[in-house]
Amino acid sequence: MKNKVAVIGAGNVGASAALYVAERGLADVVLIDRPEMEGMPQGKALDMQQAAPLWHKGGTITGSSDLADVKGANVVIMTAGFPRKPGMSRSDLLKANADIIVPAAQAVKQHAPDAYVVVVTNPLDVMAWLFWKTTGFPKHRVLGMAGILDSARFRAFLAMELGVSGADIQAMVLGGHGDSMVPLPKYTTVGGISIADLVPADRLAAIIERTRGGGAEIVKLLKTGSAYYAPAMSAVEMAEAILTDQKRMVPCSVLLEGEYGLKSLFIGVPVLLGGKGVEKIVELKLDAADLAALQKSAKDVSDMIAELSGEPAKAS
Ligand SMILES: NC(=O)c1ccc[n+]([C@@H]2O[C@H](COP(=O)([O-])OP(=O)(O)OC[C@H]3O[C@@H](n4cnc5c(N)ncnc54)[C@H](O)[C@@H]3O)[C@@H](O)[C@H]2O)c1
Predict the structure, then answer these.
(1) Is the pTM of this model over 0.90?
(2) Centre of ligand 1 from the C-alpha of residue 97, in Å
(3) Which of 5, 21, 151, 225 has its CA 20 to 30 A from that of 275?
(4) Gap between the Cα atoms of 20 and 59, Å rounded
């Protein structure tokens, strides 16, 4: 197979992403975890390789404990990192995951200098910024995954409400990944019909609230760990759009340089995603309330970037 996808972090999200890439026949996959976990990525990869004859797509899946094995990857999916644990402050999580992102980004810069990167590690927008900053890659080649997942959750809840296929629901969610995301009902349709014509306002408000807490609801149910099937599938949607030049119009966390009045940070906005990564950033005409919500979300991200970089916040 011509393309290669390297997945860094062979935990729940990473292993699921590797499986989806392989099962869709998108690329050869290497699944990498840290040396202390020697055997785990190799074992998971071998298990997937044994499933490969059953999905008739070919391709290889290998496990590795060496970041240098990102070599030759067209797309890197970065999933290594901790989820926030009880008792862990936001600053502790920032620092712990930054310590994982920086060496991974340095390895990608050295061994896969032409790769496109999809960052999944939380806190998402800040880790995507840090990956971009560390590699020095052009901004169209580093993206964070959040908006596709948040939109998918919104679509899933609307599909459950209406009893229709989620495939017929189009939705757009902007902003930072987390409580401050900005779902846009104005751009939400079911088979082309405005959502406002189909779902009463109070139900829609409740569904938006559920979407905001979509990750937390799963954490509560699982008791240990956090969501991974939908996050992994969302990252693979992005990898597929790049590998097969699909020209998708989807929300991704990308570097803004003045769009929406924001700069020097990563945040979720609609982009044209194709073979050259972020081919265009789409600037919607937001009403005052949505713009204010986006700016508030951006301030949260910008404050975290400032905390990490030791430089004052400069989002706008
Ligand atoms: N952006 C999103 O929407 C979204 C959604 C879900 C999860 N996440 C985030 O993704 C990350 C992974 O989640 P998960 O559920 O897969 O966690 P997990 O604990 O199951 O897996 C994380 C893996 O990373 C590995 N790892 C740690 N340091 C490493 C290093 N230096 N090099 C290589 N591998 C290393 C660990 O050994 C582990 O296998 C977390 O930060 C989580 O918060 C983000």
Answers:
(1) yes
(2) 9
(3) 151
(4) 12
